[in-house]
Task: structure prediction
Amino acid sequence: MELTLGGKISSAIVFDRDYRSENECAAIKEACGKFSELVALHRRKEIENFLLVPAAIDRAAANKVSEVLRRGGSAKTYVPIADAVLNKFSLEKKITWLVSIFLIAGDLRDRILQV
Result:
């Protein structure tokens, strides 16, 4: 790619733990450091869940629909919905998390009162 563009391409890599050991993370950082200026390890697993950008998802989906149309697919239009879908999903997860916390707190209270 650098040859084609006629210059150096800077890059940064951010990866997550995804159940990797410290040794695995160190090896990955070292290997990636050979071709990237910045290598960062996110402390959490499944970092992709922190990086969802609704506008980018909508653009990618709209581009895919346009590509299908260019190749002779049936006429469809993409309605941007990523923000609404992600907000709904996030709210459902927050509610599930809160219910779990309340159940745990209630269980602990019951155990303490039994003593």
The first helix runs from residue 2 to 5. The longest strand covers residues 12-16. The mean pLDDT is 85. Helices lie at 2-5, 22-33, 54-70, 82-114.
